[in-house]
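Friendly challenge for the regulars: who can give me the structure tokens for this chain first? No prize, just bragging rights.
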Amino acid sequence: MSESQTELVQQIKDDFEKLREQMPEIGRAYEAMPQEVYKDGSLSGKHKRLMALCVAVSSGCRGCILYQTDHALDNGAGAEEILEACGVAISMGGTMAAAEATRVVQYLREKGLVS
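First reply, four minutes later:
Bragging rights claimed.
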């Protein structure tokens, strides 16, 4: 992958902010659900974010992959845990998920978390 994952995250963030400006009610509704879903409960927020990362990698949603990686890191997941989650995604999603997992590796490398 030649595109910068860090730059892609910023582009998605900027574009989504423009969308929220145009549709503020949708933006507020959209943000309310994750606040509820990802809070600590029987499962920790960290584990929920790792689960979401598995789904994102298996689905091939590049924005979701990058944002769930960030959220997992913010919730205390280390690079090893994130890569293990990618392994689960690969076991479920095969070669397509394996290709998407390389985006996570590149992003972690850009953040200085893996070599």
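The mean pLDDT is 95. The longest helix spans residues 79-110. Your move, everyone else.
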